[in-house]
């Protein structure tokens, strides 16, 4: 059974940093691209970033470029999202999502339950 | 970036009704379109990929159609468990983009 378990969310001040983790199980982790998708309170879904199975390819939404970094450790079946220079508008539930293929990302066949990030002073 | 516009943003229908949601892309995306269902308090779930392909295990009352810039998603007979927000998402080009969502409620 595929499982994705996010962690690392919390309350952070504007300008601060957080590192989210997503531990995967139930599939051959290194064979699939992984994405982070966020949802601000009461709003829709926004794709943030993706990383290929090997980790060699990444892509970012404009809102994340230059501030967020996605990485993965295939020996630990874990994908990370390092978020720096956080702003109030980054407040959201962050979902880890498994792609059903390699690269480029296309469709998310499994999602975690999300981790909540709040940016406030 | 490719903009995805969904309509209506919300609707209320009776159990057994046929419900249709549309999604328009700002440019031709061929059939590179997915539909997701998100129930309150839950993560999204993939229902349809490639505009019209039903994911295994998804009830057959759900269907999708369209190509190019205009797409539709239909629930042939609305059930109480279908109360959710439905999102389209294009994968023709990066960045991936979602529509704004369509909230479906029971009348």
Describe the structure.
The complex is a heterodimer of chains A (121) and B (107). With 121 residues, chain A is mostly beta strands. Chain A contains no helices and eleven strands. In chain A, strands 2, 4, 5, 6, 9, 10 and 11 form a seven-stranded mixed sheet that branches. Chain A has a four-stranded antiparallel sheet with strand order 1-3-8-7, with no helix packed on it. In chain A, a hairpin with a 6-residue loop joins strand 5 and strand 6. Chain A starts with a strand and ends with a strand. Chain B has no helices and eleven strands. Chain B is globular. The chains are: A mainly beta (121), B mainly beta (107). Chains A and B meet through strand 5 and strand 10 of A and strand 4, strand 5, strand 9 and strand 10 of B.
Quick take:
Chain A is built from no helices and eleven strands. Chain A has strands spanning about 5, 10, 20-25, 35-40, 45-50, 60, 70-75, 80-85, 90-100, 110, 115-120. The mean pLDDT of chain A is about 95.
Please specify the SSE layout and strand pairing.
The complex is a heterodimer of chains A (121) and B (107).
Chain A (H helix, E strand, L loop, with lengths): L2 E5 L2 E3 L5 E8 L8 E6 L5 E7 L6 E3 L7 E6 L4 E6 L8 E8 L8 E4 L3 E5 L2
Parallel strand pairs in A: 2-11
Antiparallel strand pairs in A: 1-3, 3-8, 4-5, 4-9, 5-6, 7-8, 9-10, 9-11
Chain B lengths: L3 E4 L2 E4 L5 E7 L7 E6 L6 E5 L3 E2 L7 E6 L2 E6 L8 E7 L6 E2 L3 E5 L1
Parallel strand pairs in B: 2-11
Antiparallel strand pairs in B: 1-3, 3-8, 4-5, 4-9, 5-6, 7-8, 9-10, 9-11
